[in-house]
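Action item from last meeting closed. Structure (178 res):
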């Protein structure tokens, strides 16, 4: 875009027709760039959240994991009255997705309980019955959880509690509803 505009600056006094053609070319590049950025952003949002509520997307994901992994997952969703913004929904979804994946892959869990509770802050508790840990290793997934939550002022705490236990708090902002 910058190079194209520099060319227009030179052409505008010498050849107005070519300058207009160059502006048309720049316009096409800008529109294509905007379309590409929108498509990239669209791909970053979990597909299930694109067409479903958070609860529906979680239930769909849970059904898929149960079918593929022979694991029992119980969801206690008490956020029906909460209207989270898109960024928070994405983070909640990704954290639950990562927790289920870890429980199956690393914890060899047979069951997971996920609670989304409305307290002073929004609270997520994820407990599996897997092997847990002796010493917690912060791999990519756990670091991602911490980093994503930090963006929205949230926190996560992990414990070895008859399996892997995850406790997440997300602060309320702006009153009773976000």
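Sequence:
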């Amino acid at each position: 875009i910058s190079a194209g505009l520099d060319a227009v600056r030179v052409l505008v006094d010498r050849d107005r027709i070519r300058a207009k053609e160059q502006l048309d070319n720049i316009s096409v590049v800008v529109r294509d760039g905007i379309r590409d950025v929108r498509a990239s952003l669209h791909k970053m949002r979990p597909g299930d959240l694109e067409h479903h509520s958070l609860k529906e997307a979680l239930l769909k994901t849970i059904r898929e994991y149960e079918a593929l992994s022979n694991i029992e997952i119980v969801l206690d969703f008490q956020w029906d009255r909460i209207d989270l913004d898109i960024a928070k929904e994405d983070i909640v979804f990704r954290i639950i997705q990562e927790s289920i994946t870890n429980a199956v892959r690393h914890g060899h869990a047979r069951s997971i309980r996920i609670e989304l509770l409305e307290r002073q802050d929004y609270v997520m508790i994820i407990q599996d019955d897997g092997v847990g840990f002796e010493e917690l290793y912060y791999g990519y997934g756990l670091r991602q959880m911490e980093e994503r939550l930090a963006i929205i002022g949230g926190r996560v705490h992990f414990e070895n509690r008859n399996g892997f236990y995850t406790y997440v708090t997300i602060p309320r902002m702006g009153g009773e509803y976000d």
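Note appended to the action item: The longest strand covers residues 111-118.
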